[in-house]
Design a protein that fits this description.
By secondary structure, the protein is α+β, with helices and mostly antiparallel strands. Helix content is 36%, strand content 27%. The mean pLDDT is 95.
């Protein structure tokens, strides 16, 4: 098989890259180890920056998002028994966020690709990347029927996540990895209940962090800080509701809406970046190159920003025979990545309780939260980063 760009991974990065390339007339093949049903059912983060929303709309895959998503113009910070609204739109020059789950974005991208008759290979195994430093790299894999196949291509895009094969295909001596593992995780639940709030609530509490979000008019997503080594079995429904009510309690007339919990899971938290994000004809994008704690809502949005840069560079290569944008891909993408890493670390550090917390550190967190909600300059910093900095 021959194509121009071989894409490993059918997550948001790989599918969006394939979609953008197709609009530029550039051929690609997408390989995915999981089945279509699994990738479309894996529920992940659902906050889209303004730039991500605009990109999906302009590329022709935003119709359902605009119809079913929730536009939010602010977030609520809750601490010390009070609630404080951050006016995202007013502080960021009119920008906003869209709450639209990642698996819904994936459904839209898969449908667009299949409707166009463009190839996706689901259920592949034993993927290896070959000859990456040559001008003719290859991807070898076993297809769903067990047959060994090979794709010859001009470039390889590694969009297969943190545990994929793409990043390890870069020799260890040619890459540097930067990691921060956090001593807590998020216990997440999906609940059948009407919305309890019009905007996301981020709560700092002595018992730990909590977050209230919306996925649809009938389904809500809630999180609470927990031990990453804990077991889901240790959290019966009654304990979950007790903790959420305690952490979200305040002096105002607001009540958390309960309902049937139909999904539970624990998410570990880390910050991670690899440099550079390219090696020969291999280019990394999305979680293959970087991970952020979910507090800043940046994961999917960074993947979208990566592939926007990469798609433009590949288009310039094929249209104008330019090599400079591809050569600059890693440096260009990393500027935004490190800004988002810092923002996500800051939000995480400000809102969570750490295992080695002292009363002094807790007072520092409260002072920071108070300053964010009282200072227009500090609130503007939060708002601009949360809605997403402009692409250009």
């Amino acid at each position: 098989m021959r194509t121009q760009v071989g894409i490993v991974g059918a997550g948001p990065a790989g599918l969006l890259l394939a979609h953008l390339l197709r609009r530029e007339g550039i051929e690609s093949v997408v390989l995915e180890t999981r089945g279509r049903e699994e990738i479309e059912a894996t529920i992940r983060a659902g906050v889209l920056e303004q730039g991500t929303v605009d990109m999906l709309k302009c590329s022709g895959v935003g119709e359902r998002m605009m119809r079913e998503g929730f536009v939010h113009h602010g977030i609520i910070l809750r601490f010390a028994g009070g609630s404080h609204r951050i006016d995202l739109t007013g502080l960021s020059g009119g920008r906003s966020i869209m709450v639209y789950a990642q698996h819904e974005v994936i459904k839209d991208l898969v449908k667009a690709r299949l409707d166009a008759g463009a190839p996706i290979e689901f259920g592949v195994k034993d993927v290896t990347l070959q000859d990456l430093e040559s001008t003719a790299p290859k991807i070898r894999f076993r297809d769903g029927a067990g047959g060994v196949r090979e794709i010859a291509c001009d470039f390889v895009a590694g969009c297969d996540g943190f545990h994929g094969v793409s990043r390890p295909s870069i020799p260890s001596r040619r890459r540097s990895e930067f990691t921060r593992v956090y001593p807590f995780g998020w216990f997440g639940i999906l609940v059948e209940a009407p919305p309890a709030t019009d905007e996301l609530i981020y709560a700092h509490h002595e018992r730990g962090f909590a977050l209230v979000s919306t996925r649809s008019p009938k389904i809500q997503r809630l999180y609470l800080q927990c031990d990453p080594e804990d077991a889901v079995a240790n959290w019966p429904d009654a304990r979950i509701w007790e903790e959420l009510h305690a952490r979200l309690a305040n002096a105002e007339d607001w009540k958390l809406t309960e309902g049937r919990i139909f999904q539970k899971g624990i998410v570990a938290m880390r910050s991670f970046v690899v440099e550079p994000m390219q090696y020969g004809r291999l280019f990394l994008a999305g979680d293959a190159a970087h991970i952020v704690p979910p507090t800043g809502a940046k994961g999917l949005n960074l993947a979208a920003a990566d592939v926007r840069v990469l798609a433009r560079a590949l288009a310039a290569h094929y249209r104008e025979r330019r090599a400079d944008l591809l050569e600059q891909y890693s440096a260009t993408a990393l500027k935004r990545i490190w800004r988002s890493e810092h923002f996500s670390w800051w939000m995480t550090s400000m809102l969570h309780r750490f295992h080695d917390d002292t009363p002094f550190h807790h007072r520092l967190q409260l002072a920071e939260l108070d300053y964010v909600t009282r200072s227009r300059a500090k609130a503007t910093t939060l708002a601009e980063n949360y809605v997403g900095l402009p692409f250009d």
